Amino acid sequence: HIDRETLKIVVVGHVDHGKSTVIGRLLYDTKSLPEGTVDRVKRISKEKGKPFEYAYLLDAFEEEQKQGITIDTTQLQFHTQQRDYVIIDAPGHKEFLKNMISGAASAEAALLIIDANEGIQEQSRRHGYILSLLGIQKVYVLVNKMDLIGYSEESFNEIKHTMNEFLSNLHVFPLKYIPISAFHGENITSRSEKMPWYKGESLLTALDLFEKDKGLEGKPLRFPIQDVYKFDHRRIIAGRIESGALQVGDEIRILPSNKVTRIKTIEQWVEKDNHQSASAGMSVGITFEDEFFNQRGEFIVHAHDTSLVTDIFKASLFWMGKAELVKHKEYKLKLVTQEVECEIYSINKAIDATSLETIENADSVKTNDVAEVVIRTKKQICIDEFKNNQHTGRFVIIDGYDVCGGGIVSGLANEIQVHT
Ligand code: GDP
Asked: Which GO molecular function, any one, fits this protein according to its record (predicted)?
């Protein structure tokens, strides 16, 4: 099963709306728990005089994982026929936001859980906001505890309508709303007989329908220049292909200078012979048909690609500097091989990473908080929106000599957008 596909998901929702129960159910129903876990947890519950809860399975599972040395305790796994799943744990928003923005953990899809009986709470809204902040677009909303409202179609539709309205303002468009009872296992592995009015898929079937992102090889070419070497009178442009592929003869564009030429040769350092093509993840040297003055930090893309050079853009930022992040101070921004001076042009939102309280139009961002900002660079740079390319859509901010923040590019900005 070495080349099975893995999808990383995150489960978010207001406390007590059923996060752990859903995860416990998924682990249980896909037989992903170690032998005997269920029996043991049932026995312990009985001894304590408490009714059995699927949520306890999660604690027991984590406990068992901790005892094994080889298994990563922060990542729960389960498997379907189709592929493997990893649940990115979100122990507190702070760690989750930090890990997601810095790239330490990356969820491709999300399940947002809402208690049907309690409806949408402030936290549900904030979690919706987190998804938008992180650019997670593959989202299912699970309307849980349907048993408590008599499996009512009407209430389900009401919640769906309200949530849809709220999320669409954040540009999050859930792909599905699934009515479930995690506790009773309704609509988890198969369609529930309690909700014949629901014509969609069960949770597990729906999970397998999340489409995996295209691999880096399938994306547009991004080849940031690391170094330029002179070699036997030739200029060899060296770097790592972050995404896409290139071939001898390809017409390419060098950004931001916007010069166009063709690739003459591709050289790899290890073997002596020339190559005809290279793709994402490979470190190569290339030569051009025309010689220009090239330098570190420039991006090589295919000639038809023109849209990613800018000096102003929107970003989601995690700040960990000792000093607060402030507007209009000079920082350094590093994005792959580019290094450029920048300033924070506006702080549209500063968010307390623990409580998710938000301040609009803030003047500063505190240590360990998150912000939605507009960044302005002194020179034009090449960027991608994070949702399109995780390698060229992520950057760090340096204050003095210290890395003080990590960010992801959430969108292009222009001055007009900034002021509205
Ligand atoms: P979390 O805080 O979001 O992880 O929520 P839990 O999974 O711990 O669930 C909170 C409580 O809700 C527990 O007592 C669960 O048994 C209960 N619960 C979860 N799902 C359901 C459900 O579908 N129906 C009912 N009636 N209770 C549920």
From this structure: GTP binding
